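ok so i was messing around last nite and threw this chain in just to see what happens. nothing serious, just curious
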Amino acid sequence: MKVYFYLLFPSFFILTLACTDLKPTALGPDGRIVVFADSLIYRLAAPGLDKTIRQTVSTLPQPEPLFELEHQPRLKFNDLKQRAYLLILASLQDSTPTSKMARSMLSPSVLELAEKGEQNIFVIRDKYAAHQLVVFVIGNTPESVSGILAADSANFTNTFTELALNRMSMDMFRKHSNEDLSEKMMEKLGFSVRFQHDYVLIRDTIGPNFFYMKRIQPDLDRWVWIHWWDNPAGDFPKRDRLLAIQDSVMKLHIQADDSSYSETVPGIISHKEVNFNGFYGIETRGTWRLNDYSMGGPFITYTFYNDSLKQLFMINGSVLAPKFPEKMKFIREMEVIAKSIRFRQGKGAAPAL
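result:
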């Protein structure tokens, strides 16, 4: 077994373990990170954790943490080391059990980087199990760990989010992908999205350039719609215009049996510029409701410009889960489906399956 080092982000080192031995798939629920830290460091790190992986997602109907944390002592490490997400917080100037364990697991050259302050976050993928992430945060002192977390909060959070989406994608599509539907989409529309086997087509011809799929389960509905339009000039709508477009599409197409229609809830909205599969895009998160206020739930929308096709695409995933108090996992499913979009030609062209 060899360990290779390469720089991913300005403050991140990824330690990739190259090993031919087959490993079991990592265990544990997605969205839960096991944190190994001695009590003092865990308490001091709380502000940094709150700004990163434990941050509150306020665009859901009830605020939820981005990830759940499960704090464990060093003695539990061997029992839990095959969990999917491991976070180890340690100090170079601390003789407590977890810090000693962390230092023993990292090479002297890596510890030297931490001592100099050149690198303080180190990632090992697939160390004890396949599809696993082990993240070390090493500070010179216990007091410095929280600041290290907060200083690079976006990259730190994205590291865990990326694995969560990849693991969810494998679980969603490994045995339950509707390949026939994706192939028909590609043939008819020039692009395709991956769906689980029990999504059903609601409509794909009503209105200009609109496609709508839904998955109905007891007390849980999920649906995805896509709207696209020509934009030769390449100008990207401003964010208030994006919401107006989304509302107009939902008013026309996303209706209940009594003709009430979906709309976005004002004020519970976040926008973020993103690299969406290589395209410039805007990620919009928020809450939808029926205009009669009878029901509602969370949504995520990606709007991106395909500069090869000179078209703008808006792909929305929405959830209705009134009996499920936690909805973050369902929104992650919508994110996985949205990001599976592929095109027949031009930029973003790739086999859909």
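not much to say yet. The radius of gyration is 22 Å.
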